[in-house]
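User: Please predict structures.

Assistant: First:
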Amino acid sequence: MTTRGYLQEVFASFQGEGTRVGERHVFVRTAGCSLRCRYCDTPLALVRTESVRVHRGAGEPDRELNPVTPDQAAAWVEELDREQQAWVSWTGGEPLEQAEFLAEMRPLLGARRVYLETAGVNALEMGQLASCVDFVSFDLKLDSVSKEGDRRAEHREFLRACQGIERMAKVVVNEHTDRDELESMARLVAESDSAIPFVLQPETPRRGRAPRLPQELLEDCFRRARRHLPNVRLIPQTHRFLELP
């Protein structure tokens, strides 16, 4: 039986975060997430909705009914990337909460590479989906920033589940960042694989204004992470500056 999934929106744009910034992506944003991170920039995707928005051009998006089949989702990707030049980004919400649906979609995407953006706390589902993705971008949840509690044990299990896949760790930082906590996250990543890029992402203020964090804070966060990992970068959300989706 075909598994149906809940999506929030599908659109084509450019990757605005992390080490693959600037590359062309078709974003398949799933609907529903068990976490409630304080800085979440996609609150409309936190719950399952009756419809999914499909952005086909510059005007208002079309609305299609949820839940959708893998074939429907793959057809929208094809419509937005007929030359098969874009990555397919599974984002959310939390995509791994719908792993079975995404696994059924994967063979329908042709030669396109798949980029998974996840909170990095669903180790079991990551293991089930490992053969379906080419790149994993996972958030490390600092309780001092996200207010989601201590997630280090879940992150550790997640790192085991996605071994062998190209991946990137991302940490959102703001003026409340506990620097010792951040360093412990960098140490955790290094214990799994010191080659994983570690991206410090300043929290983007509401309405997309430029982050304004003290240079001393950013320098210290970088220095602490660099004690454990050789590839540490400071990269903001570039799509917010360009006013792109």
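Second:
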Amino acid sequence: MAKKTYIKAITDALDIVLDEDPKTLIFGEDVGKNGGVFRTTQGLQDKYGEDRVFDTPLAESGILGLATGLGVTGWRPIPEIQFMGFSFEAIDQIAGQEARMRFRFDGKQHSPVTIRTPYGGGTHTAEMHADNLENFFTGVPGLRVVMPSNPYDAKGLLISSVESNDPVLFMENLKLYRSMKDDIPEGKYTVPLDQANVVQEGTDLTIVAYGAEVNEAKKVADKLKDKASIEVIDLRTVSPIDTDTIFKSIEKTHKVVIVQEAQKMAGVGAQVASAIAEDAILSLDAPIGRVAAPNSVYPFAQGEDYWIPGADEIEEKVNEILNY
């Protein structure tokens, strides 16, 4: 075990999959000699060569087009979209091609592509560099969307994603890259896809969150521990959503607050709330609480801290639901 940052855990995962499978390839803008804009792939080109870790032109549609072709010809590509806001250029390749591959070929052909991209606020980046765009992709059939909240999960989930035969959009939170450390086992381990994690058990209220908001939820649970026993669930995979874990939790707590950093409209939180309303509403003793960003364009850096939901907003909603 060693204390490692979120970003170092991701680098470790990439090193492991490159070492284990010669059919894995990493490519994207500046991922080679420079090691990526955040140095996530630093040292990997030197270790595995320019044929396996290489730079591409500044063209996301080309990067994902290459990944699509490689994925159906026996390779296991790991393309990088340098910032989530640039993914609009590649939506056709992701949603129109890779996600449909298994359906299109009646299960005889797969698309084992793992698309890595950083997202999220809190670091005061330029416009279109911090957008939370999971809402655009979670409704795409055939595409898995994974959003780890901590270094341990980041490494294990990334290895699981690369080994999966389905396309995965693997979203890495910018703020978490170097702001938190975990004890990380050396060598290979995996964290299962499509399974939420109960990171803190409780009996009075359930908070469902993902990404950086899991850590904000934990702050609230700790702050209110003398007042209420709060269970915190980390979705980890936001498409598909592990509703079984959520339903089991609210059968015990009878109250729920759903938290996301992205805009509220048509988000992951809306899907969770809809699933609870349809299949587990009789477990609740209070309305479903939701905390999310405003339905507005992601703000410039100066307004970011006011826009992103934090522990204060979560605490206010939790108290409202507890006192209902």
